[in-house]
Amino acid sequence: MIIAKNQSELSAAIAALKNENPSAKVGFVPTMGALHPGHMTLIANARQQTDIVVCSIFVNPTQFNNPKDLETYPRTIDADKELLLRNGCNILLLPDFDSVYPNGVLNYEIDLGGIDKHMEGAFRPGHFKGVCMVVERFFEMVKPEIAFFGLKDFQQLAVIKKMVQVKRLPVTIVGVPIARAESGLALSSRNALLSDTEKEEAALIHKALLSGMNRYKETVDAMAIRSKIESEFLNSSLTVEYISFVDNNTLQEVNKVDANTTVCIVVYCGNVRLIDNMQFSEAK
User: φ and ψ at 253, to 5 degrees?
Assistant: First the structure.
């Protein structure tokens, strides 16, 4: 695995690999590190669909509206390198701030048609502007044919697809299904901040979403399904920040649920903010 720390090293690494295979497709997996098996499903998909797999690790300050969240975000670079090496990553892009933002953080504006204004956009002002800024910059650096993102961050995936459309960027965005622990807890870098006991408690999030799927067998009323999900948390130590039922295409809130609806949830386990979702098309 080649480690590139800036644009010139990255371009040289890709050129060297393309010299061996001129028609090679580049796949890109952007991350903020603290890698786990969920990230490795992204790497696996990239290996299956492309020839050169590039993974970036960069904790992007422009997408954190809470400085404490940025400060406490887990960083495990040595373990990350080993995991990527074992899973067939070809190039690790490990840039510093100046390599990503050589001219500093410039003003960045994009009209995403409103899909960035609610859910995460409402609770984390400026978050998606930071996400779009850094992802577009990485696309400029890597020039991938395909980029891979996890469906756990459902709204983020929609935002990135919209950004690519608006900016007319020559990259295909692939969403990869959520990877879960045996308990059902969605795999996340933030899980590293949980104790073993808290991880057991946080498994309730998945259980609550499944209860919502079961309620869907009896009613399509979003309020009734929301009440069922909320009831699962009544005697727990977890705190629900929001539960939203959104249309898969527009991300607008819906009152009636169908197979084109996703329920998105954010829950605090102690001080750790956990995100998850489930699509009603998955309801058995």
Answer: -65, 140
Residue 282 domain-assigned (yes or no): no
Which residue in 36, 39, 127, 206 is the catalytic one? 39
Give the pLDDT of residue 161: 97
Per residue in 162-201, pLDDT (tens digit) is 999 999 999 999 999 999 999 999 999 999 999 999 999 9
94 with 139, same domain: the answer is: yes
Last residue of a domain, one of 151, 176, 201: 176
Q: What is the CATH number of the domain that holds 98?
A: 3.40.50.620
Which range marks the domain in which residue 98 is found? 2-176
Specify the DSSP class assigned to residue 186: B
Alpha helices by DSSP H, the chain:
7-20, 37-49, 67-72, 77-86, 97-100, 120-123, 127-142, 154-167, 196-202, 204-216, 222-231
pTM of the model: 0.93
Q: Is 206 a catalytic residue?
A: no
What does the pLDDT look like over 95-127, one tens digit per residue? 999 999 998 888 888 999 999 999 999 998 888
Beta bridge partners, 276, equal 265
Helix (H, G, I), strand (E, B) or coil at 109: coil
Q: How many domains does the chain have?
A: 2
Tell me phi and psi for residue 126, to 5 degrees.
85, -10
